[in-house]
């Protein structure tokens, strides 16, 4: 993260408006040609404002005693636009055509001004004179951009998600005590939770419905709304940059199944998550399933929710568990909990913080 600081060097130019004589060349020899094939001196005008400007009846002059020496025709200059006027002495002021003043510039330096239509107010001038010029070297208002890093990537930060307005603006004051806030490293951002979001830390990163492709239980009609479909026939699979890989543990065999139960009820929703699924076929202690997710952001907390169902569970009994862990240990806890769920033949919807 950096801060851009713009430094404007105006030399001897004096400006009181957003339109300026941004650059001149008073000793042009083949650097820039006009339509006649000649290379007269030239003056550049810049509209340094967010609005267009019509230069009709504005003036350019190289005499402080004659501020209306040469007059612009109707000429539109867009926001941040530039216009070159040749200081050739050819005196061409036709709207939409190449513009030439009725005077030339002196390479030894002289007065130069841009004057408003009233012929009195000078909006920008080089006074008493711009300095002596060099062959094919331009002179004017220079811009230099410096990048200053005020905050390094990965720097420690503190943050708080407030639940009320008690703090007001006190947290913006110098010396505010934020020692009780959560810690992290930048860069950080924020987003709004929608009603369908179930992750307390932000929007849902991944939602998968595991389906039985052997029985043709694929497509939108067999996928829970808001979820992406995953099958053993497409394993591993990538969803929004996150790769999901299902594998069996300790000699277990991955399989899938389709069932007509459970039916959607007021107490058991999301039936498409349950009616077909992927499981591990095995009766030996240690048989299990691993779901590996790669591509998630590092140093970011995620909450993992797992749905499992077996129609043989007595009374459609619900079993919940929570395991607090992180990294690979978290996935191991998930695998163990899922295996235990099948052993109990329990229907569950469980959340594991990873």
N- and C-termini, Cα separation: 29 Å
Choose one word for the global shape.
elongated
The total domain count is 2
Radius of gyration: 36 Å
Based on helices, strands and strand pairing, what is the structural class?
mainly beta
Mean pLDDT: 77
Unreliable parts? 1-16, 313-354
List the secondary-structure elements in sequence, H or E.
Answer: EEEEEEEEEEEEEEEEEEEEEEEHE
The portion of residues assigned to helices is: under 10%
Number of strands: 24
Q: What is the number of helical segments per DSSP (H or I, 4+ residues)? A: 1
Q: What does the largest sheet look like?
A: 5 strands, antiparallel
Explain this structure.
With 354 residues, this protein is mainly β. The chain has two domains: 3-147, Immunoglobulin-like (Sandwich); 208-353, no CATH class. It has one helix spanning 327-344, and strands at 3-9, 13-15, 19-25, 41-47, 53-54, 59-61, 70-71, 76-77, 82-87, 112-115, 122-126, 139-140, 142-148, 156-159, 182-185, 208-210, 228-230, 237-239, 242-249, 253-258, 276-281, 288-294, 303-308, 348-353. Strands 2-11-10-6-7 form a five-stranded antiparallel beta sheet, with no helix packed on it. A four-stranded antiparallel beta sheet has the order 9-4-3-12, with no helix packed on it. The protein has a three-stranded antiparallel beta sheet with strand order 18-19-22. A hairpin with an 8-residue loop joins strand 6 (59-61) and strand 7. The protein is elongated, with a radius of gyration of 36 Å. The two termini are 29 Å apart. The model is unreliable at 1-16 and 313-354 (pLDDT under 50).
